[in-house]
Amino acid sequence: MRLRDVGRSAILAEFEDLDTVLGYFRALDADPVRGVQEIVPASRTLLVRYDPAQVTRDSVGEWITGATALPPPDPGEAEEVQLAVRYDGPDLADVAEHTGLSVDEVVRAHTGTPWIVAFAGFAPGFGYLVDGDPRLRVPRRAEPRTAVPAGAVAVAGEFSGVYPRSSPGGWQLIGTTDTVVWDPEGTPPALLRPGVRVRFTAM
Amino acid sequence: MPWLEVVRPGIRTTVQDRGRPGFAAVGVGRSGAADLAAHDAANRLVGNRSGAATLEITVGGLAVRTVGPVSVAVTGARVPLTVNGSDRPDHALLHLAGGDLIEVGHAVTGMRSYLAVRGGLDVPPVMGSRSTDTLSGVGPAPLTEGDRLLVGADVGAWPAEEIIPPPPAVAGPTVVRVDLGPRDDWFTPASIRALFEHEWTVTPESNRVGVRLHGPGPLHRARRGELPSEAMVAGALQVPSGGAPILFLADHPVTGGYPVIAVVDEEDLSAAAQARPGDRLRFRARPGANPHP
């Protein structure tokens, strides 16, 4: 782990890999301290924003370095979201070709093991899902689409994700869900928050 | 309750408060007033709590009609201000009658003015804030002609002073203090020197997401490769591959894949948010940062 100051009210903690990021995110999220306002995970880092009027940088740094990464919670303990998917995406055949699987095997791989929301980005409510079946690793499309519909279920690299609203996008589209993953009026507004376990089911 | 009716929305006017912190982990940034100091000052002049929503008027051109008596104040960028065609002072508390027409002319200096009304603007909050986030699309839409803005009840005590000093006119570049990092090690020593030794000009592509800067030349990287995306903050000076820095403001993306060479002091971010295209910024290293062991 390495800590870097981000101005005078945030610290960026750098880690070797995403698993370690998530382990520390779980540990710090479960053990909040006064003055820490926000923890933002990304693929190799956690950003910890704090209020310097309430807590010193050094005590925030010690809180981070003193934490012990937590393993993923056992099934049944983590918050789990089930997403019913119609596997009708326009890139389903391409994903099958890339992976050497049949279309049915792609669907079984995507639904066979739970995914975990690692971090958010790109758009409000877009969660990067990891820990899925490693056979599903495919490149992004050579040409991103200018409009991907809301609810599109996609894969790219080590990730899967659900487009919260219509937007441009370059991931491979394998299906569609009717579940609303982003509602600014909802409590909470995002269904796919870091740490949440996601299980896809085929409709 | 009285309300304001939008006669002309101006070039771009949005509702802003102190933003919606706490949602970056689900992809939504803080947003809020780009110049928090001016937003707070406007609220203080009308006796509001600092969380009350104001209008952020970009460059100017706004006209609103009061429906019912209201007390207002305009702060931030210096603007010609009239009520029913007569000049009235900015940075001052004004008591208006119903049917009065407030017109905010084009800013003489600065980019963003704030119009506060006693009680705050009661547009429906989204995720705990009335701010318009122009990047994520969360919050109320920018003002359009005919909008009715209800006045709320977000009041505190009346202020001790009814006039405050406007921001001083800046001769020459705006000096902005920064702390280097978190990714200054991605840049050559010569480029880090260039950051401090040269003036940086604000380009017309600037907006609430960020102030895009033009300098003597690109800032060069000391290393190859790509930075995995990481969380960003307001005040971050991010340097895309072209080498021209962007100073992130209130509506910055929550994550980014380009290295941040330095972060602007929160106290100086308000002044930077008032820089207009063609204005110059000069960065100065803040003293006293002791590196982590």
From TrEMBL, chain B:
Keyword Nucleotide-binding in record: yes
Keywords, alphabetical: ATP-binding, Hydrolase, Nucleotide-binding
MF term (GO), any: hydrolase activity
The protein's name in its UniProt record: Biotin-dependent carboxylase uncharacterized domain-containing protein
Keyword Transferase: no
Domain Carboxyltransferase, residue spans: 25-293
Pfam entry (one): CT_A_B
Domain of life: Bacteria
